[in-house]
Amino acid sequence: MKAAILTAPNQISTSEMNGPRLSEGDILLRVRAATICGTDIRIFRGKKTAGIRYQSVLGHEFAGEIVRSGGHGGFRSGDRVGVCPFIACGRCHLCKTGRENLCTDGLAFGYEIDGAFAEFIRIPARAVTAGNLRTIPHSMSDGQAALVEPLSCVINGQNKAELRNGDSVAILGAGPIGQMHVRLARLRGAARIIVSEPNGHRREAALEHGADIAINPATEDATLRVMEETDGKGADVAICAIGIPELARQATDIAAIGGRVSLFAGYSSGETAEMDVNAIHYRELTVTGAFGLSRRDYDCAFDMLASGRIDLSGMITHEFDLDHAQDAFAVAESGEAIKVALQGTAALNGRI
Fold first, then answer.
1. Half-sphere exposure (CA, 13 Å, Cβ side) for 231?
2. CB-based contact 150:60 (threshold 8 Å)
3. What is the CATH number of the domain that holds 254?
4. Helices (H) and strands (E) in the chain, counts
5. Smallest Cα–Cα separation from 205: which of 229, 242, 177, 236?
6. What is the tens place of the pLDDT at every residue in 132-184?
7. Domain that residue 31 falls in
8. Domain boundary residue among 271, 289, 307?
9. Are 12 and 109 in the same domain?
10. pLDDT tens for each residue of 219-264
11. Which of 45, 132, 276, 277 lies deepest, with the highest CB count within 10 Å?
12. Residue 43, phi then psi, degrees to nearest 5
């Protein structure tokens, strides 16, 4: 089969490789849509190395069509399915206390097992029996189903930050994740959503899909502007939606008294940030991290998209086939796109 293979940092190429070898209970999936995550880019650039194998296939945001199922889990050949890409062990203390996204004995597509930047992918029996697969309804496109995973992570992040109806929300970074934070915050009843983003195209997209204010931090003082837009109070919730360590300090600067700061974005190994510890102490700020997703988050995101409660149409702005995987990564990294999909028009059927 054809796959985009990561051979070393900064080296990814499309070539033929042996197809997946199935064990009892496994499902063989034909990948119909797989989107590039900021984490994929950091892995590609060698900025994230923990758990990464060379050679391997990346890709953890995906949907596909079952080629071979053996009837396991009630799934049949021809079914379109979305896949929660983290398979928790279900046995450890973290899993048993509702933190399965932090399970240290889990398996993740694109890490311990090959991911979806390929024509076919093996879904282990362990994922099937754990309930990691969802049948895609006719109302949902393959591209939308691939976006369930990042939306699940955003749901986890906003839950951790306790984002509530009537909150003022400041989102630092309006890339794909920032755009989803805007849409979800609006759905949750945020009273005012302020975005800080230097990319003009992304600022416009944020305004189109729910942001009230879009600041260009390259030309104006974002901290001052957030304070002005909140009558000097600051934001009830400040979300770092891009992995720039310096923004952690800005997030504490713009948070209101009793506010919540979400360090949502992933950072490169060894990176540190300066934060105003006095502000955290005297203004009683809550600082939270948010990593990955649980099956509960995935099911929530899947149902929201399937029911039309949240609309992610237009998020996928560029499509490439596997032969142009390097071009896809270049566009995703450039900031020109919102979200980039591999597999191309034939897989997405032009529905996004």
1. 2
2. no
3. 3.40.50.720
4. 13, 18
5. 177
6. 999 999 999 999 999 999 999 999 999 999 999 999 999 999 999 999 999 99
7. 2-151+293-348
8. 289
9. yes
10. 999 999 999 999 999 999 999 999 999 999 999 999 999 999 999 9
11. 132
12. -65, -45
Share of the chain above pLDDT 70, in %: 97
Alpha helix (H) ranges present in 45-141? 93-96, 125-130
The number of residues making up the chain comes to 352
pLDDT at residue 346 in the model: 38
Q: What mean pLDDT is reported for the chain?
A: 94
Residue at token pair 């990691």: 132
Q: Residues 227, 259: contact at Cβ < 8 Å?
A: no
Q: Are 33 and 348 in contact (CB under 8 A)?
A: yes
Number of structural domains (the chain) is: 2
pTM assigned to the model: 0.95
Give dist(CA 173, CA 240) in Å, integer.
7
CB burial readout 80-93, b (16+ within 10 A) else e: bbbbbbbbbeeebe
The pLDDT score that the predictor gives to residue 51 is 81
Judge whether 147 and 99 are in contact, CB under 8 Å.
no
**Quick one: 115 and 246 in the same domain?**
no
Same domain for 215 and 339, yes or no, is no
Residue 172 near residue 242 (C-beta atoms within 8 A): yes
Same domain, 144 and 89: yes
Question: Would the pLDDT of 352 be above 80?
Answer: no
**Type of residue at 344:** G
